[in-house]
Write a structure and sequence with these properties.
- The protein is mainly α.
- Helices cover about 55% and strands about 0% of the residues.
- The chain contains seven helices and no strands.
- The two termini are about 40 Å apart.
- The model has no long low-confidence stretch (mean pLDDT about 85).
């Protein structure tokens, strides 16, 4: 589509220059027809049926590792770390992340956002939400946050 304006500050384009540039990028745009020998060689190449490998993002990994930590050591309320080793949601995030890095912060934000989706917008912090819900409710939020991180590829 060509549009013209009354006054422009654009420099006119040299169409021959564009043609030469594209010629340098793709010197032979028309592919050669395949020879019977080339087709026979392609027919012998096995097709793989393996699914493409998907890398787990750092947020998804942090959330997954934290939930595994809760499954292994237990879930707690009103305490970052219970004397018997159980942890609250923030404690599990800290154990999984090893440091308060970007993945830790993003995982916490995603977890709190999912808690607000499921239990209302009134929750200001993960501990306030964690301490007022059942283990099943907390687990439901963790699983949904992991699914969201997976879907978002983060």
């Amino acid at each position: 589509m060509n549009t013209r304006t009354q006054k422009t500050d654009f420099t006119p384009v040299d169409q021959d220059l564009y043609a030469k540039a594209f010629q340098l990028l793709d010197p032979d745009p028309t592919p050669e027809p395949a020879t019977p020998a080339a087709l026979a060689a392609l027919a012998q190449v096995p097709l793989t049926t393996a699914a493409p490998v998907r890398m787990t993002g750092p947020v998804e990994k942090t959330l997954t590792d934290a939930l595994a930590f809760l499954d292994t050591h237990g879930w707690a309320r009103h305490s970052l770390v219970h004397p018997e080793g159980a942890r609250c949601s923030v404690g599990a995030l800290r154990a999984a992340a090893d440091s308060r890095n970007t993945a830790y912060r993003d995982a916490g934000n995603l977890l709190l956002d999912e808690a607000r989706r499921q239990h209302g917008k009134k929750w200001q912090t993960i501990p306030s939400w964690n301490d007022t819900h059942t283990g099943a409710q907390v687990r439901s939020v963790w699983e949904a946050a992991i699914r969201r991180a997976h879907h978002m590829n983060i």
